[in-house]
Amino acid sequence: MTNYNYLISLRKDVDGGVPGPDISDAKQTTTYIRLDDQKPSYLLTGDDVVPTPTTWAEQVKAAANGGPVIVFVHGYNNSATKLVETHNKLNRELAIALGGRPFCLVSFDWPTDDKGDTYFHDRRNAEASAPHLRPDCLDPLAGLDVHLLGHSMGAYVIQLACSEPASWQINHLILAAADVKASDLATSADSLTHLLTHCTDLTCYYSADDKALAVSALIPGHGPRLGRTGFTQSTTDREPQCVNIKCTPYYEANIKPDDGSALTSHVWYLDCADFIADLTHIITEAPSFPNRSPDPSSNKNWYDLVSYPGLKPGASWADPLTGIISPQASTGHCV
C-alpha cells in the first residue's frame, strides 16, 4: 500500500515543475501536494499535485482518521528536497511516539534557498509567505484537530500570520529554536497578545547554546531571539498559556559532545526522539510529561527537557495518552 506525504507549496516552478527557492508569481500561488513517501521530492506538475484545496483537505482528513493534524512550518535554508527529507524524519518519529495512533503531518513549504548565505532572501520570503498560512493551509483544514509546529524562521512566518486578533484558531502551538525577537513575545507585547488569541497554548523550546540564533541576534534591529532565551518569568507569570521548555542542559548532555556546530545546535530538535515524545504529549493532552523536569526556581510553566529511559533502541515508550509504559521500539534519543 502506498503511503503519502501531504504538503502545501508556495514555491515557484523553475523548470518542468521543479520547485525553486522563490515564491510563485503564478496567479494561483499555492500548490497542494500529495506525495508518495518513497519519492525524495515533489513536482509542481503531474501526479503529485492535488487539483483543489477541498480535495486535498479531504485526503488529509482521511489520513488523520480522527487523529491530530500537525502543520509543520520549516525554517530558513531549505530546498524542497531537504524539506521532504525532514518531513519523513518527523513522520517516522511521530508514528513511534504516538504508538500507532492515527495522525497526519502536513508541511507548509514556504520558499527558501539552500545555497550560500540565504538568510535575508529567506526572511523576505517568510514575510511574503505568512499571509498564505491561514487562507491556503489552515482554512481548508477547519474542523480538524490542528496543531502548529514552527522551527527557526518558521516561527516568524507564524508570528506574522497571527499579527491580528483571532478570527481563526488552532489547538496547540509549538515553537522550537524560534528565530523571532524575544521582546516581541513578552508580557503585554501586541505580537504575543495576538498570537495567544489563535491557540490553546504556546510552548517554547529554547537553548542558550543555539549558535545560529546567536548570530541572528547580532543583526541590527533583531536583538535576543526567543529560541535562545525562552519566555521571561514575568511573561509566564502573567500568561498561563505560555510554557517554557529549557533545552540547554539536554543539548549539552546528549548532542553537544558529538557536534557543537552552529547547524546542529539549531536543528537538533527535528531529529530528537525526546523532543518529539514531549510534543506528542502536548498534542494528545496527556496526563503526564515524562520528558520534563520542573524548574524549581520558577513557576509551574517552566521545565527542563530530559531524557526518558524508554527512549532507547528496543526499549519501552510512555504512552502519550495514558502515561503507561508499553513496549515500543524507538530510534534512540537523537538520530
Task: Summarize the model shown.
This protein has helices spanning about 55-65, 80-95, 120-140, 155-160, 190-195, 210-215, 225-230, 235-240, 250-255, 260-265, 275-285; strands spanning about 5-10, 10-15, 20-25, 30-35, 50, 70-75, 105-110, 145-150, 170-175, 200-205, 240-245, 290-295, 300-305, 315-320, 325. The chain has about 325 residues and is α/β, with parallel strands linked by helices. It has one domain (about 5-325): Rossmann fold.
Give the helix proportion (percent range).
25-40%
The CATH architecture: 3-Layer(aba) Sandwich
CATH topology, which one? Rossmann fold
Number of helices: 11
Order of helices and strands: EEEEEHEHEHEHEHEHHHEHHHEEEE
Strand arrangement within the widest β-sheet reads 5-4-1-7-6-8-9-10-11-13-12
Beta-strand fraction estimate = 15-25%
User: Which radius of gyration do the C-alpha atoms yield?
Assistant: 19 Å
CATH domain class: Alpha Beta
